[in-house]
């Protein structure tokens, strides 16, 4: 049983936290429909009692008085509750009206990040997409992990065949542009990264962080090196060059490494980076040549090692090439598919064999001519597709669990675009900066009212596990799950669907996503794995450490690694241009995240936003002096697309001429219905990020390394050390109530 009677009315419920990628096990004490406490589950084989402060948000989301419980329609007099039948009928009619008048692709859809944390949503979203029948699709992927998908698609034959660091057994971890102590791991599902990194050092290993900011992760690392934003590609090219110059690639080949043997083009990599010596990139990157050479030597001579790069690498102008180089470095040094290196998870539900391999550039966006990936256009194209007139202009739109006004570049422009649509619908809990523009908002149930199994993030887990969590609370009669909303809309929009599709939808509607999950488990790699079996293990099942999976993990027909060198080598022309034009006097803006935040959507929890303001402009003392800025003073930050006023936080955490603003804030826009978030509004960094600043190779947004100007506008007004006390520590085996 997943709930046990402990007192007369008090019960214990075990589940997986679905707020981020870490999949931490929870123990939730509740009395009826009231949550009493949320603690870490010491018996969870994956997280072993660890949770972070965000776990409390499950209770806060469920109980939030601002959370919508019924569909609402925007009227001249404000929002009005309407019935589900009326709401769904009006949404279907609105979509059909736009498409009949302007064409099938004149209605667009955006899928936000929380979709992949939702079992029912993940398994049924295809029915919504196929019923709308539009090519105008966008998702958060293109302001996030898109380079990881493209590299894996090219090299391994599938966009989801992404290897992850074997952090539990490595002796040397090189982290570039990643902050897993704040993110809890990303494209690396790994709860309690603080302890995992400490464990590396405790076994005489080493953790090295490369980042323009001395992050929380850098603080506990063995060493940290500052790097100028968006120059990671130069560091990686120099490292690859040094690997060959120092003979480490030959050593890996002489050991008959399996990954090296499976990459027939690998010899060509010897020339890929030959023009990028450590000396030639030192001044631009800010990392001395002798240090680059030492890092290569240490990495290659360690008993085991792994190179990992995340958001700081992915969302900049050379995101795809940089992630390719990280993968290539792991391969040529013999670290792919080796214990302590980069390894492939083997999840109980095989998402790779249950989905297509992905594709890049089958179509291009109407206005900016950017490539689609697996049917999604880049988010940076979204506003222009709405604003620029002509055949195919977007006139209607749906957002699903997303707030792109705050989460994508040039938010003010997108805000204007949404305001000018003929019809808009949002599937969302709240009236947000984006959903306030909707004609109708359809709210799904809270996370605690739905079953959960991590279909997506088990595919990135650093240890193989499986865990099913039954819903803690039964949903109210007049509430709907996300998947029910999708199927109801599909029924109305797609009345001429093939008979097989109609039967499938009826089956899912009757049996629920649990039926689909059970089928996935039965078809998976673990014999005898079923949903009924998982239900008998409420803490989860340990399926063992990562194992070597080559060549069977490869999805190319020839079972080889396709390095696709010509595609990536063509991008070196842009790299050369960047080196020639680089301005080391320019102020560069980067983002940052906090363990108490999750993008834009946890700021309505007082427990998570209390304390000193976190939405500040971090800058180095040297930069502050140059611009006459004092700690706590208001500063105007201006980019090509906009300007914000923000409080300065002078610190030695950043290298000079780099400034940082966290993303996800900016809740002061008129019409937002989130009281706590509005009281802690902050500013939106995406009112500064530029929708024309992109990774040309992939179409991914480049929100790190944005050129900005600074202006001190008035004397010091705010003392950052007052307001509330703020406790930022992670919580291990403790209460988050």
List the keywords.
single chain; 737 residues; alpha/beta; Barwin-like endoglucanases; six-stranded mixed beta barrel; 17% strand
The count of DSSP E runs of length 2 or more, i.e. the number of strands, is 29
Helix content: 25-40%
Low-confidence stretches: 717-737
Radius of gyration: 25 Å
- For this structure, the CATH topology of the domain at 166-343 and 560-569 is Dimethylsulfoxide Reductase, domain 2
Mean pLDDT reading: 94
Count of helical stretches: 27
CATH architecture verdict of the domain at 166-343 and 560-569: 3-Layer(aba) Sandwich
Strand order of the largest sheet: 7-6-20-19-18-8-9
For the record, what CATH class of the domain at 166-343 and 560-569 applies? Answer: Alpha Beta
Cofactor: Mo-bis(molybdopterin guanine dinucleotide)
Family: Belongs to the prokaryotic molybdopterin-containing oxidoreductase family.
Domain 4Fe-4S Mo/W bis-MGD-type: 10-66
Protein name: Anaerobic selenocysteine-containing dehydrogenase
Q: Can you walk me through this structure?
A:
The protein is α/β, with parallel strands linked by helices and 737 residues long. It is 31% helix and 17% strand. A hairpin with a 2-residue loop joins strand 3 and strand 4. The C terminus is likely disordered.
Which SSEs are present, and which pair or pack?
Layout: E1 3-5, E2 10-16, E3 25-31, E4 34-40, E5 50-51, H1 57-63, E6 72-75, E7 78-81, H2 84-102, E8 107-111, H3 119-132, E9 137-139, H4 146-156, E10 164-165, E11 172-176, H5 180-183, H6 193-202, E12 206-210, H7 216-220, E13 223-225, H8 232-245, H9 248-254, H10 258-261, H11 269-272, H12 278-285, H13 289-301, E14 306-309, H14 311-314, H15 319-332, E15 342-343, E16 360-364, E17 371-373, H16 382-387, E18 396-400, H17 404-407, H18 411-419, E19 423-427, E20 440-442, E21 463-466, H19 482-493, H20 499-511, H21 513-522, H22 531-535, E22 541-545, H23 565-569, H24 572-581, E23 587-590, H25 606-609, E24 617-620, H26 621-626, E25 634-638, E26 643-651, E27 658-660, H27 675-679, E28 706-712, E29 731-732
Parallel strand pairs: 8-9, 8-18, 11-12, 11-14, 12-13, 18-19, 19-20, 23-27, 24-26
Antiparallel strand pairs: 1-2, 2-3, 3-4, 5-29, 6-7, 6-20, 10-15, 16-17, 21-22, 23-28, 24-27, 25-26, 25-28
Helix pairs in contact: 2-19, 3-19, 3-21, 4-15, 8-12, 8-13, 8-15, 12-13
